[in-house]
Amino acid sequence: MNPYLVFIIAVLGTGYLLDLLLALAGLRSLSPRVPDEFTDILDEDAYRRTQEYIRATTRLSLLQATIILPVTLTFILAGGFNTVDLLVRSAGLGTIATGLLFTGLLLLLNFLVQLPFSLYTTFVLEERFGLNQTSVRTYVLDLLKGLLLAILLGGPLLAAVLWFFDSAGSLAWLYSWFFLVVFTLFVQVIAPVFLLPLFNRFTPLDDGALKQAILAYAKQENFPVQGIYTMDGSRRSKRLNAFFTGLGRWRRIVLYDTLVAAMDAPETVAILAHEMGHFKRHHIAKMMLVSMLQSGMLLYGLSFFLHNSGLFAAFSMEHVSTYAGLVFFFFLYAPVSLVLSLLSNMLSRRYEYEADRFAVRSSGLAGPLISALKKLSRKNLANLTPHPLQVLVHYSHPPVLERIRAIREYALQARD
Ligand SMILES: [Zn+2]
Asked: Taking the model in full, what pTM does it have?
């Protein structure tokens, strides 16, 4: 049997077993008792609903993985990639257009397989637990806008990478990387002005006590505020959030309308002080650098396997092509990608603690930060007792109880 095929099947199988293990560990670590920290805002009933929600989402993701694995294996073993390749080749287009069509068709197939799960999550599961606010119309429009963006942004990017690897020789990975970095920065800059408004309405925050409190804190931190906006997050979900977006003079503070409705002014300022911590400690720039280094590694690795005949044989391909090599390489790269995402989650969790510490020191609002985190967890139906393995693999934020404990410590240190 083809060694590449053996490796890829082993990777897919191991990935599935890992999902299974994490899900089971997660279900076992659910605790039936409301954690002491939360007894003031969660009664037994509300807590039981959160637990039911976590059980239901876990079961659904297991079902999804259990269906996707055999579908993927069958597609590979039955020569599905070759069938798609022959089909797009029959259109008689140039190699880059053929590559775009090949990738587009595969993404479409993947989308169709995932669609029932997405529909069920939004309109059945989240609906049942009172999280969903999305109408069918918004859902369909989101899909169409997402598709349009994928074509407008993803298309040229993929075309450029394919062009470099077809014509730039051994340094193709470097050119592609450079192009990708410039492209990513460009998208970061235009996102708040041109992309986010496609999906949400942004309204300048009303003058009032909240705006005054935010401006006073921003002034204390010498943060040039270009605008404070509320976003109609309630159009899709009851979840709460806040973020800073954009670079340089396009920088904006964005608060979900659901957040403004649920939090008082000190809690909102405490949340912004946390975001300010990310900004002041350059976490956003550092995470971006890490992800750029990762894409550099990916492209460098890709250049070694792109036209590997063994790899093409594993997928029963009749023709060797750059575009198919790119797709196949992702199967080989999956274990590396898992390890890298573990490391970047670890870094991200450290940054969350740093941002909390900054928030406590700069605003003195440890109490409101804690009550804001508790409200966030309650409204978002967050898992209060995730298993440490789940945290290790999937969590970009530390579990809320650990954050609260750390915030209390920072408050004590700040008083000394
Ligand atoms: Zn954060």
From this structure: 0.90
* 398 CA to centre of ligand 1 in angstroms: 10
- Give DSSP secondary structure letters for 20-69: HHHHHHHHHH--SSPPGGGTTT--HHHHHHHHHHHHHHHHHHHHHHHHHH
Q: Specify the pLDDT at position 396.
A: 94
CA of 250 to the centre of ligand 1 (A): 20
Per the residue annotation, which of 275, 352, 402, 416 is the catalytic one? 275
Give the angle subtended at the CA of 193 by the CAs of 192 and 198, to the nearest 5°. Answer: 85
Q: Cβ distance 133 to 236 under 8 Å?
A: yes
Strands (E) across 73-191 are located at none
- CB distance 268 to 255 below 8 Å: yes
Secondary structure class of 382 (helix, strand, coil)? coil
Identify the CA nearest to 255 among candidates 222, 219, 208: 208
Mean pLDDT over residues 373-399, rounded? 94
The CA 27 to ligand 1 mean position distance, Å, reads 26
Q: What SS3 class is residue 253? A: strand
Residues 6+ apart with CB under 8 A from 108: none
Does the annotation mark 356 as catalytic?
yes
> What are 196-253's pLDDT values in tens digits?
888 999 999 998 999 999 999 999 998 887 789 999 988 888 888 888 877 666 678 8
Give per-residue pLDDT as tens, 180-199: 999 998 888 888 788 888 89
- Catalytic residue, candidates 126, 267, 352, 356: 356
Q: Which tokens belong to 11?
A: 């990777």
Cα distances from 415 to residues 18, 89, 151, 360, 362, in angstroms, run 44, 69, 54, 11, 12
- Among 84-93, 106-115, 238-247, 332-341, the range scoring the smallest mean pLDDT is 238-247
Quick one: pLDDT at residue 350?
98
Could you tell me the distance, in angstroms and rounded to a whole number, from the CA of residue 244 to the centre of ligand 1? 10
d(CA 273, ligand 1 centre) in Å? 10
